[in-house]
Amino acid sequence: MKLAVTADVHLTDGKKHPERFHALGYLSDRARAEGIDQVVIAGDLFDAESRNYAEFDEFCRTQGSGIRFIILPGNHDLQIRQKHFTAENIRVLAQPEIIRFEPDDLPVLFIPYLREKGMGEVIAAHQGQLRPGGWILAGHGEWIEGMREPNPLEPGVYMPIGRNDVDLFQPAAVLLGHIHKPTDSDRIHYPGSPCPLHILETGPRRFLILETRTATVESRPLASDVLYFNESFLILPVEDEAEFIRNQIVKRIESWQMPEPDKRKIRIRVSMRGYTSDKQALAGIVAGCLKGYSFYDDSGPDLSQVSIAEDTERAEIARRVLSEIRKMPKPVNPDDPKADEILLSALHTIYGD
Q: Of 171, 248, 265, 323, whose CA is between 20 and 30 Å from 349?
């Protein structure tokens, strides 16, 4: 059996955020194209402010027809229950439940968000039905080891699962909601939100396909009405500032790997930091390079952290420092300072600010 898996849709009023309903529509279409008729939503289908479920009910009867939606309540929609819906293709799992979809499939333990509980505690209560290495976990919470990248909009830890839990109970695969960034590491997978909710949720969107017989997890691209990119650039008082700046911006845009038709969907936030000899010229160059792109908050590039550097002697020192820093080996550990951070700190020392 193949399941499509997403999370963190955060539906509100369809008129206020139609793009979130559209994302579910795109996902439903892609699932059908893959021959999949089961979609798992691993928490936060609805936003905290929404208690009007009629639109999703109608969506499931129309655009979602032929697909069964398995919904785990998340920390934002903890109150949703089966009784809130009338569409026959909606199933709400408000309590932990083990489901084996077909006789040869691995069992899937579905864990909704439960306040003041860790996932290990819930798994332990079902351990007798789970063969080590022979089961799959789908839940809403936080992997608190290694790749953990907290949701910047929600401080704190929500229903954690750690390395000790994985080593002890040995799920073959773990699929989680709550972190909106698409992330994969070893057996841990976050599909990410199918539609970005904030400028910090950058890049293309996706959903996951889970093969329940083998615990194989595959990623599939997912269309979105809007795509966010939050970019920061380091400006240096080099000999040819204009070319230096243009090259940075062009390479960054190329790294997005976005086809031309998707350009209209992109919303960007751009900040500059560092030193320039001509701030007015800098603003013109940046505006020219980003012509045709829409900004997230209509304020344009942020140059507030760019200082003026007109001292030729200090500029020469800065260029020599830049040359030496570029020769440094790349950092080995994730916590080691990056070259740009070292350079910016050096420039602050050189220019005395």
A: 248
Pair 129, 241 in one domain:
no
Distance CA 191, CA 273 (A): 33
Whether residue 75 is found in the same domain as residue 99: yes
User: Using CA atoms, how far apart are residues 176 and 112, in angstroms rounded to an integer?
Assistant: 10
pTM: 0.87
Q: What is the pLDDT of residues 284-295, one digit of tens each?
A: 999 999 998 999
Structural domain that includes position 342 = 227-351
Q: Alpha-carbon distance 285 to 235, whole Å?
A: 12
CATH number at residue 86: 3.60.21.10
E strands in the chain: 2-6, 38-42, 68-72, 90-92, 97-99, 108-111, 136-140, 142-143, 160-161, 173-177, 183-185, 188-190, 205-211, 216-222, 227-235, 266-276, 294-295, 302-308
DSSP 46: B
* CA–centroid distance for 30 within its chain: 19
Dist. CA 102–CA 51, nearest whole Å: 34
Nearest to 3 by CA among 50, 72, 55: 72
Fill in the DSSP letter of residue 190.
E
Query: 68: which strand partners?
Result: 38
Distances (CA, A) of 144 to 118, 150, 157, 194, 274: 11, 9, 8, 22, 34
Q: Are 85 and 178 found together in one domain?
A: yes
Asked if the model's pLDDT at residue 221 lies above 70, the reply is yes
